[in-house]
Design brief:
Residues 18-77 form the SH3 domain. With 522 residues, the protein is α+β, with helices and mostly antiparallel strands. It is 44% helix and 18% strand. It has 14 helices and 18 strands. The protein has a seven-stranded antiparallel sheet with strand order 13-12-11-10-18-17-14. Strands 4-3-2-1-5 form a five-stranded antiparallel sheet. Strand 15 and strand 16 (397-399) form a beta hairpin. Helix 3 (110-146) packs antiparallel against helix 5, helix 6 (192-198) packs parallel to helix 10 and helix 9 (246-269) crosses helix 10 (278-314). The longest helix is centred in the N-terminal third of the chain and has 37 residues, at 110-146. The chain starts with a helix and ends in a 22-residue tail after the last helix.
């Protein structure tokens, strides 16, 4: 444990008495690797090994595994000095040696002082964040648009996503926060309503977070060429930005939207129920948790499309359009007996219920792990009918654990039987879930781009042809870990570096005097 404490030490002292060290997840870590520890934003992880600065070993309940250190932070009550927490709990009661609460000048209680600290942190981090967004928009995007010879608009959309929309939104949000900020008595500030007012607008982060892996991949591709490395460094130097690489700056919005619920949880902890801001902060915490949950859910859905593509590539004799054309979520799967007209012929089949469609497959007689595509049913046209045990009028046969899919347009009827009553109930609930998922996607505007669909199918096709499972890699996470940008060679004159960030123009004497170099000014 001593080794762990050494690695985890920060400007705030962490106890080195052998006590357990906990970290708090900043955002979801979704994994398909058995050796990795998956968790959701806000989860508390017991850190068991931190000898590697990038990947730590931790435990949540009975699950253990590796996780990226940059995805977590030390729990608040560990990385803040204990003098910030003067109230001690003894015998289930707070120390109230005086009038019931310890006070700090002007009648402020300890809780008020802690609330002041949280309010100040929210305001200061918001101002810092605005500066980061401004630097990205003016220091990078503005200059990239001058270099049509280096970047297309499509590339810029991939790299920066909708960060300009986020910048505009956050500028309005920080103004609203500052209006609610009580400079004389910060603990009396009522900021909860600001988060409630902007909860819908914060959903624009979903698009950014979903695009972020694509941004990392495109940056990784471009920075293999020195010209782009020097260009991005020139942008950073001329904007006088801190010594972080572009991918580090682009990670900030992902971290920010996941931090709001953590900040609001801290604020609620130090807000008295009698405070005028209490109900709004409580509602804001739930609202921002929902925003983060929606973003995480969309992220999970996008990661699932690779699994769906791989599943389809394993199905023999596939016909018709790819499953990803209409679907992006596997709701349920299992074996059912399908009964068809006109002879009421029964067939044992495997069924896979996706959003919008039900895919039917047949197992190989000898190799039961091999599936053959047989048909599919459009769920948008279907209504589900529960069938009582006994003789069915439509098919004129006795059935048990049965249900029907009835097409409203064609009056076509499909009859299915499960082996057990509980299996039938699971299928009926799955059909309800499928309709809810479709409705939710329509309400939230969730969709998968054609580029994402094609890339998923291409990856699955490559893997299928090689006949070998794809090795577990973490290109996205590995890219996130690189916080240090490439160092510019000392042999390259600074003038040449700056020139990379300037659109081509006619030769002039302007570049001959380095002291007058202001290539980004009009």
């Amino acid at each position: 444990m001593d080794a762990i404490i050494t690695v985890l030490k920060s400007p705030h002292t962490v106890s080195s008495d052998g006590s357990v060290v906990y970290a708090e997840a900043l955002w979801d870590h979704v994994t398909m690797d058995d050796q990795e520890l998956g968790f959701k934003a806000g989860d508390v992880i017991e850190v068991m090994d931190a000898t590697n600065k990038e990947w730590w070993w931790g435990r949540i309940l009975d699950s253990e595994g590796w996780f990226p250190a940059s995805f977590v932070r030390l729990r608040v009550n560990q990385d803040e000095p204990m003098e910030d927490y003067p109230l001690k709990v003894e015998g289930g009661k707070e120390d109230d040696s005086s009038s019931g609460t310890r006070r700090f000048g002007m009648g402020q209680t300890t809780k008020d002082q802690m609330r002041t600290n949280v309010i100040n942190e929210i305001i200061s981090t918001e101002r810092d964040y605005i500066k980061h967004l401004k630097d990205i928009c003016e220091g990078y995007i503005k200059q990239c648009r001058k270099r049509a010879d280096m970047f297309t608009e499509e590339q810029l959309k991939t790299i920066f996503g909708n960060i300009e929309d986020i910048y505009r939104c956050q500028k309005k949000f920080v103004k609203a926060l500052e209006k609610k900020f009580n400079k004389d008595h910060p603990h009396l500030s009522e900021v909860g309503s600001c988060f409630l007012e902007y909860q819908t607008e914060f959903q624009i982060y979903s698009e950014y977070c979903n695009n972020h892996p694509n941004a990392c991949m495109e940056l990784s591709r471009l920075t293999k060429v020195n010209k782009y490395v020097y260009f991005f460094e020139a942008c950073r130097l001329l904007q006088k930005m801190i010594d972080i690489s572009l991918d580090g700056f682009l990670l900030t919005p992902v971290q920010k939207i996941c931090k709001y619920p953590l900040q609001l949880a801290e604020l609620l902890k130090y807000t008295n129920p009698q405070h005028r801001d209490f109900k709004d902060v409580e509602a804001a915490l739930n609202a921002m948790k929902n925003v983060a949950r929606l973003i995480n859910e969309r992220k999970r859905r996008l990661e699932n499309i690779d699994k769906i593509a791989q599943w389809q590539s394993s199905i023999e004799d596939w016909e018709g359009e790819d499953v990803l054309v209409r679907s992006s979520e596997l709701i349920y799967s299992g074996e059912l007996t399908k009964i068809s007209h006109p002879q009421a012929k029964s067939q044992q089949r495997m069924f896979f219920l996706f959003d919008h469609q039900l895919v039917c497959c047949k197992k190989d007689l000898l190799r039961r792990d091999i599936l053959y595509y047989k048909s599919r049913i459009n769920m948008d046209d279907m209504e589900i009918l529960d069938v009582e045990d006994g003789k069915d009028k439509d098919f004129n046969i006795s059935v048990k654990n049965a249900f029907k899919l009835h097409c409203r347009d064609t009056e076509e009827v499909h009859l299915f039987c499960a082996k057990k009553p509980e299996q039938k109930q699971r299928w009926l609930k799955a059909f309800e879930s499928e309709r809810r998922q479709v409705q939710l996607d329509q309400e939230t505007g969730f969709s998968i781009t054609e580029v994402q669909k094609k890339q998923a199918m291409l990856n699955a096709s490559k893997q299928h042809h090689t006949g070998k499972p794809k090795a577990v890699t973490r290109p996205y996470y590995d890219f996130l870990m690189r916080q240090k940008h490439p160092t510019l060679p000392t042999t390259l004159p600074q003038q040449q570096v700056f020139m990379l960030a300037e659109p081509k123009r006619k030769p002039s004497n302007f570049w001959q005097n380095i002291s007058r170099l202001t290539p980004f000014r009009k």
